[in-house]
Amino acid sequence: MKKNVTHFLLFAFAFAFVGCSSDDKPDENANKIEVTLQEKYETPTFTVLDITASDAGTNAVYEWIMTKNPVDQVTDSIVGNTKDLRFTAIYAGSYEFTLNVTSGEKKGTKNTTVTVINETADYNPYITKIFDFDPAPGMFANDLFKDGNSKEDLMKTVLGRIDKTSVGYPLDLGGFGGSIIVGFDHTVVNIPGASDFRVYGGDISNPTVPKANPSAPGLIFVAYDKNKNGKPDEDEWYEIIGSQHAKSNTVKNFKVTYRKKGANEPLVTASALFLDYEHVYCENNQGESFYLARPRAKKEFYPLWKTQTEVSYEGTRLDVDFETARPGQTTLWNSTLPEWGYVNAVNPDIDIDWAVDKNGNKANLPGIDFIKVVNCVSEPMGLCQQQSSMAATFAGAGDLHLLKKYNLKKAKN
């Protein structure tokens, strides 16, 4: 009996030992994150591809690494740190990525391959679309307008001046707030560390040498067609932050209101050169008011297709150091052009990574489809009365990457 009891106790002890040993053995899957990711993709060049991965929780950290780059053979470069990756390529080939996911002690990894094929269409590197043309009142606001034109008719004329070219006709945007919205026939790719597109404006040759009445700078806004509806939506715009934005004399939320003279209001003139010294009334939110004087040889300053008699514009105002070109006169002016980040800047090339949202946060756009240019200068100019140095002018834009791929010459600004 005692022998049987002893055998029973030894068996029970052995069972307990084996059971404990089994429980103490590490579970290989305990610290593993299961990552779900499509293994293969195919996409054309100049097209944004959304690569989506499974959600590993709120504390997860994601790292996308390009392990194969057929273009420059650079590998193991980090290309993203969010759950999903937006990828766009300029050149065809096979691109390979690894997604690493960590959450505390847990880790997971998954690979995917993107086969990029050449674009089926011959994209144009220049502007091909127009969505709006809204010059503020100014000396050349009606330069392209013809009697009987609707706004749609005018926009067709405007597009014809800058369509598919780098040497377009400079379009006058009028006074402060005047704008134009245009688009490409493809997505301009955002390449990290490189300029992505060039904006063409007025004649700013020898920009370091003072010149009477040079073109004024224009703010640049960009939009990526995220919902693929083919048009810029209001929630898609981001502002390009240039060299002047952080300067102390830059004014945020600057507002100008323009008021058209009524049909029965008399002209105010006492000169052979001017038809009306009080042609368009203007006031801003800095406590200043003034009139735009209309020369006899110039068209109406207030856009003739507008039905409303008063219009206001609000935004960022740049100070460009206006000075008279000659003492004692008020018709010729010199100014200091901004270094970069604007239409009519010294450097006309734009990096999409300069784009920020309305709170100043980096936009991190994969590319852009649309551009909006806005006149951002308002200065007292005597009888020149443009409230900007002959107004901001815009003559189109070019995709620098497509120009390089197609081996096309970049036109000088």
Mean pLDDT: 86
Rg measurement, Å: 31 Å
User: Strands of the largest sheet, in order across it?
Assistant: 8-10-22-12-13-21
Which term fits the overall shape?
elongated
Terminus-to-terminus distance? 106 Å
Number of domains: 2
Largest sheet: number of strands, sense, barrel closure: 6 strands, antiparallel
Helix content: under 10%
Strand fraction equals: 25-35%
Structural class: mainly beta
- How many β-strand stretches? 24
Q: What's the helix count?
A: 3
In the predicted model, the low-confidence regions spanning at least 5 consecutive residues are: 5-22
Order of helices and strands: HEEEEEEEEHEEEEEEEEEEEEEEEEH
Organism: Flavobacterium ginsengiterrae
Signal peptide: 1-18
Protein name: PKD domain-containing protein
Keywords: Signal
Give an account of the 3D structure.
- The chain is mainly beta and 413 residues long.
- The protein has two domains: 40-117, Immunoglobulins (Immunoglobulin-like); 129-405, no CATH class.
- Helices cover 10% and strands 33% of the residues.
- The strands form seven sheets. It has a six-stranded antiparallel beta sheet with strand order 8-10-22-12-13-21. It has a five-stranded mixed beta sheet with strand order 1-7-6-3-4, with no helix packed on it.
- Strand 18 (323-324) and strand 19 (333-334) form a beta hairpin.
- The longest helix has 23 residues, at 2-24.
- It holds the Pfam family K319L-like_PKD.
- This is PKD domain-containing protein.
- Residues 1-18 form the signal peptide.
- It comes from Flavobacterium ginsengiterrae.
